[in-house]
Amino acid sequence: MPAFYLTLIAVLFAGIGARDQVTIAGLARVQGQRPGVLIVALLSAALTAVFAAWAAQVVLAELPPPARTIFAAIALGMAGLESMILPPRREPREPTHSLGALALVLLAHQVTDAARFLVFGMGVGFAAPLASGVAGIVGGCVLAGFAWAFPQMLDRPAARWLRRIVGALLAVVALGMFLSEIGIL
Q1: What pTM, to 2 d.p., does this model score?
Q2: I want to staple 179 with a disulfide (CB 3.0 to 4.6 A). Which of 11, 163, 168, 185 is the partner?
Q3: What is the rounded CA–CA span in Å between residue 145 and residue 165?
Q4: How far apart are CA 28 and CA 1, in angstroms?
């Protein structure tokens, strides 16, 4: 159960102000809160979390237990760097009403975002890809629903700063895990 709760908390924090959230919020502001946008966002969040959990299951079968923690630390570090370095675009430049185009954009954003790195890393680190995957689905859907329901909240500078702070914390936790596993801490 710790894998579920810790992954859920990490995904919720790491997903604040992420690229997919900003895209959903931007479309909700420009086009109104269309139910189709919410449905596509929820499906995309679920599919990418399932993919991350599946990838964790594949990697988990190949790694011995000591390497799992190091691999999880690398994934957490990548999530932290992604949160600190890659800023999301503010508004969609050419908002389209195509839900298929939105699905492609969201899938591209979510496959490589911090939240899915966390699902992947926590699934490997805790040896619980199913629990981490379910937490990723729940967290991703909550984040997508929040962006759709309250698009104005992501316009504030506090969301961008919170994203960078969470990224820095993830990087520090990853470094601590790594140093602890190799015996320095």
Answers
A1: 0.89
A2: 185
A3: 23
A4: 35
